[in-house]
Amino acid sequence: QSDDSDKSSQESDSETEVEHVSGYHKLLATLKTSPESESEEEEDESESEETGESEAEMGSEGSQETGEAEEGKEETNDVPEEEEGDTDTAEQMLSQEQADGTDTPCDPHHGVIEEFTDVKHESEFSLETNFMEEESGDCSADRKDSNPFKQHMDKELEEKEIEKMSTLPKTSSQSQWPRLGQVVFSSTLEKQKTFKADKEFDVKQLHLHKPLESTWPKVNKQFLSAADKPTDSSFTPLQRELFCVMNSYRDLFYPERSALTNGEEIRDAYCLHALNHVLKANAQVLSNNARRRDRKPGTDADAHRDQGLTRPKVLMIVPFRECALRIVHVLISLLEVNDKKKIDVSNKKRFKGEYGSDPEEKPPNLKRPEDYEAVFAGNIDDHFRIGVAILQKSMRLYAPFYSSDIIIASPLGIRTVIGAEGEKKRDFDFLSSIEILIIDQADIYLMQNWEHVLHLMKHINLLPLDSHGVDFSRVRMLNLNNWSKYYRQTLLFSALQEPQINSVFNKHCFNYMGQVAVRNVPLTGSISHVVVQLPHVFRRLEADSVTSVIDGRFQFFIDKVLPEYRDAIMSHTLIYVPSYFDYVRLRNYFKKEDLNFTHICEYTKKAAVCRARRFFLKGEKQFLLFTERFHFYKRYTIKGIRNLIFYELPTYSHFYSEICNMLKATDSGVDATWTCTVLYSKYDVQKLAAVVGIDRAAQMLQSKKNVHLFVTGEN
Question: Domains along the chain?
Answer without folding.
Answer: 147-195+202-293+304-360+368-518 (3.40.50.300), 526-712 (3.40.50.300)
